[in-house]
Amino acid sequence: MSIKNRIFDRLSKIFENKGRKAPIPAILLNNADKRSGLSKINVKSRVLQRESEIYQFDTPHTKMIEIIVEEIMNEIIENGFIEITLPPNSINTIGEGENAGGPVIVRSRNLTFAKGKGVIR
Q1: CA 14 to chain centre
Q2: I need a surface site. Which of 26, 35, 109, 111 has the fewest CB within 10 A?
Q3: Whose CA is closest to 53, among 71, 40, 72?
C-alpha cells in the first residue's frame, strides 16, 4: 500500500461517524439566515387565534398552557436563529491548498465539534 493510500485511509477514519449525534437536518437550516427572529406579537396573535380550542375540553386551563407552549416552540423552530461565539482555537481543521506565486487558498474540513455560548433571537 502506498503512502498516499495510507494517508487517505487515516484521514477518512477521522471523518467517520463514531456514535456521535446526527447533524441538524438540512430542512431546519434552510433559509436560516433570512429568518426574522423571535416575535412576542406573532406568538400572542397565534395563541389568540386558537382561543376557541380551549373551551372544547374539560380542562381549559391545561389546554391553554398546551397551546401557549406549542406556539412558543413553533416560533423558535420557524423564526428563531442562534448566534454563537466560539472561543479561540476551538475549531480544528485539516486542509489542502496550492500557491502559484500568490496567496494560499485553503479548503478545509472541521475535525471536531465546537462548543460555544449561544443566544436564540
Answers
A1: 22
A2: 26
A3: 71
